[in-house]
Design a protein that fits this description.
By secondary structure, the protein is an alpha+beta fold. The chain has eleven helices and 18 strands. The strands form five sheets. Strands 3-2-1-6-11 form a five-stranded mixed sheet, with helices on both faces.
Length: 415
């Protein structure tokens, strides 16, 4: 089986590491899911590596489980990156068209994207990705693909994603220690968006909300372009912590209560329904109402959505996205979360499941697999399989260091 036909994604999250191995099935077909591996993660806190050995062990276990299912070794992969240290900002690049006849070439497109990276940032920050959103040719704006057009002045509006250099190096160290070559790093909220959004949703205007254990990532799209991306430092793990504090019990018991009895809809629970801690763990004692637990959960979930709404207000899109919100990640499975999202964000809301699936889809048809499936689709777009735009395809050159690999990923989000 040719190596170039194998697509691999590894999502390194706070609660678990997920590895998916797939194979290209031709330009008109979906990638075939061949292997899936999930391992608990203990070396990650809020998306950042805090224990090298523990993280290596989790990646290795996840990798081996996927290899065992697929019968294919994991030698290279696209890797997700997350955490509070990752920030994004828009930057403009401007170049003169090089050809005498004024026709814009791939080289011109490469140069203008490289020019957009000229941003001011501290020495301990590193550019992770540069995503071209739209181009301007001699004052004509909102051009998706400039190659082949004529002009004198070429501009690009690009989203520059940058993060802490030490944290990025730690991530690379863990991956390479596992014998895996890194194809590239992909910002988790963007990978999740790739997996769950349709072209129509990206056109109309939508926010993807990826609720993980330690953080919540958001990405906002409109007219096929990305408008905003951010990390909120609260996730589903904070709900577990709240339950542990509120019921004065252990984290493990609180997690079991959240999974078995948790809901956001406190108003729908009978006040007489009780939870006996001794039935969950014989070393615990105490009896609480399910309604009390639901109120604890609701308070934290509302806080997450209020913080998301503040991000939307920064770009003047609060309550103004016709396609609404799409909720992914492990936290998306909390009963009643859609209703709270609608109420707090004043937008339509739905749970986001990975699309474009084939193969052992029962293993990955889950909101918590959105990011890792997005990595697979992201890489397949690199090879032109899922390119949704029109016009020429080209691959931009590597700039030789982490974060300076400018790739042909603007095709990923074109309508």
């Amino acid at each position: 089986m040719p190596k170039e036909d194998i697509l691999i994604g590894i999502d390194i999250g706070t609660s678990s590491v997920r590895t998916v191995i797939s194979q290209e099935q031709g330009e008109e077909s979906k990638p075939m899911i061949l292997g899936v591996g999930v391992a608990s993660s203990f070396g990650i806190n809020n998306g950042v590596i805090v224990g090298i050995e523990e993280t290596i062990n989790a990646i290795t276990k996840s990798k081996e489980l996927a290899e065992r299912t697929a019968g294919i070794p994991v030698e290279h992969a696209f890797i997700s990156i997350n955490g509070n240290h990752v920030h994004s900002q828009f930057s403009k690049g401007v170049v003169a068209v090089s050809r005498a006849d004024g026709e814009i070439s791939e080289e011109d497109a490469s140069r203008v994207i490289i020019a957009s990276q000229a941003i001011s940032m501290p020495n301990n920050r590193e550019i992770i990705d540069v995503i071209p959103c739209n181009y301007t040719i001699d004052g004509q704006e909102q051009i998706k693909d400039p190659i082949g057009m004529n002009g004198v002045r070429l501009e690009v509006n690009a989203l520059v994603i940058e993060g802490s250099a030490p944290f990025i190096k730690n991530l690379y160290k863990c991956i390479q220690h596992c014998g895996i070559d890194i194809d590239d790093l992909v910002f988790s909220p963007l990978a999740a968006a790739k997996a769950v959004l349709s072209k129509r949703q990206r056109e109309l205007g939508v926010v993807v909300i990826d609720i993980g254990k330690g953080t919540t990532g958001i990405s906002v799209f409109e007219d096929g372009n990305i408008l905003h991306s951010a990390i909120i430092p609260i996730g589903a793990g904070h709900i577990t912590n709240d339950i542990a504090i509120g019921l004065r019990t252990s984290i493990d018991v609180a997690e079991k209560i959240k999974l078995e009895y948790g809901t956001v809809l406190a108003v729908e629970i009978n006040k007489k329904d009780k939870i006996d801690l001794s039935q969950i763990d014989e070393n615990e004692e105490g009896i609480f109402t399910r309604k009390y637990v639901a109120e604890i959960i609701k308070a934290r979930v509302e806080e997450i959505f209020i913080m998301i709404d503040k991000e939307l207000k920064k770009i003047n899109r609060s309550g103004m996205l016709p396609a609404g919100s799409v909720i992914t990640g492990g936290g998306a499975k909390m009963p009643g979360i859609v209703a709270i999202a609608k109420e707090t964000l004043r937008l339509p809301a739905q749970i986001g499941f990975p699309i474009e699936l084939n193969g052992i889809i029962d293993r990955v048809d889950d909101p918590s697999f959105a990011t890792v499936m997005g990595l697979i689709m992201w890489e397949s777009d690199e090879n032109g399989v899922f390119s949704s735009g029109s016009g020429g395809k080209f691959k931009l050159p590597s700039l030789g260091r982490v974060g300076q690999k400018v790739r042909n990923i603007f095709k990923t989000f074109l309508p």
